[in-house]
Structure formats: structure tokens, C-alpha cells
Design brief:
Order of helices and strands: EEEEEEEEEEEEEEE
Shape: globular
Distance between the termini: 36 Å
Number of helices: 0
Structural class: mainly beta
Strand content: over 45%
Radius of gyration: 15 Å
Length: about 190
């Protein structure tokens, strides 16, 4: 189904929570042949998260497409509260996810120096495209994330807020990529 969101899906302070759609995600909102089983489109405020995990342990997110509609400062999925080092997000499984047209597709932490504790989170079959500043952003000295089958394209073409325009950005922590494809040439080349 199609869902117009104007406020965050807040999974904060939860243990063993699930957000699962009944089938696979679509590939591109511009393709009329694609049907989305769960397409979340952002109609809320600027500088917001569509899905927020903060002090969340043991979560499962599957078969979701997120489109932020190029609204400034949006994050498709945010691990850790904004501008705080005191956050724990562990043992989260994310699979069959598409995030597009956000400022940052998936953000892992928001304080690079020493926190938050964003560790032991697993991602499988993730497609990040046409995100304004970055597709994936790791900003936690305590962050550890494992990605299997990550495809990124056309991210970081017009970075905002002094960010480096890239498909995948890591400042602190560790992002392990297994079967990663990053595409960006011509008009889709990241600003760097």
C-alpha cells in the first residue's frame, strides 16, 4: 500500500519490535510497472526522520520503500536520536529496503566522536538511490554495521549542510560491506 506520513514512525525505547510488509519492496517510484507493497512517502516537516530507532534492541524491518520527496534534511531510517551520543541500537535486522529522495537514506548515529552505541545491526538487500547528500552515513565511533547486497546509485549529487556528497560515508566505527555496488557517473556522480 501507499502511506502518506507526516510524523515519524518512532520505534524508540522498544525491545523486539517488528515493522514488516507482506512482500518485497519496489525498485523505483518513477517506474509505473513497479508495485510497492509498502511505500512510505514523507509529507512531514523538514529535518525529520521517517523511521527512528533510539534505545531500541532487537528489531526487524522488512519489505519497506521510503521516499522523502526531496524534503530538506530528511533521513529515511535513523539509528540513534538526532545530535545525541546517548543512544543504543543493537541487534536490528533490516532487509529488502529501498530508500530514496531523502537528504540521507540511512543514518547510523549522529555523533562521530564517541557514540552512540549503534552495534551488531544487520542489513540485507538494501537499495539507496537519489538521496541528496548521502545514501548511507555512519557517524558513530561505536558503530558496527554489516551490509549484504547493498546497491547505491545517484546519492550525494547535491549535498546539503556542508556534508560530503557520497554513496557511502563512514566517520568513526565500522561498516562491513559484502556484495556492494556503488554507481555514480555523469549526472549521477556524487559531488565528493
Amino acid at each position: 500500500g501507499f502511506y502518506k506520513l507526516s510524523s515519524v514512525i518512532d520505534l524508540s525505547n522498544r525491545f523486539n519490535v517488528c515493522l514488516i510488509a507482506p512482500g518485497p519492496y519496489g525498485h523505483d517510484q518513477h517506474d509505473d510497472l513497479v508495485t510497492h507493497n509498502a511505500l512510505f512517502q514523507w509529507y512531514g516537516a523538514t529535518n525529520s526522520n521517517v523511521i527512528l530507532l533510539h534505545n531500541t534492541i532487537g528489531a526487524k524491518i522488512e519489505n519497506i520503500s521510503i521516499n522523502c520527496r526531496d524534503i530538506a534534511g530528511t533521513r529515511g531510517i535513523a539509528f540513534g536520536a538526532d545530535a545525541t551520543a546517548s543512544s543504543i541500537v543493537k541487534a536490528v535486522s533490516v532487509s529488502n529496503i529501498e530508500v530514496s529522495h531523502c537528504d540521507i537514506g540511512i543514518r547510523l548515529g549522529d555523533v562521530a566522536a564517541n557514540g552512540p552505541d549503534i552495534a551488531s545491526n544487520f542489513f540485507e538487500t538494501v537499495y539507496l538511490h537519489h538521496n541528496i547528500s548521502q545514501g548511507l552515513s555512519q557517524n558513530s565511533g561505536n558503530g558496527v554495521a554489516y551490509f549484504y547486497n547493498l546497491l547505491t546509485t545517484c546519492n550525494g549529487v547535491s549535498p546539503a549542510g556542508g556534508r560530503q556528497g557520497v554513496n557511502v560515508y563512514a566517520e568513526g566505527g565500522s561498516v562491513d560491506l559484502y556484495s556492494y555496488v556503488g554507481i555514480g557517473e555523469g549526472s549521477c556522480k556524487p559531488a565528493g
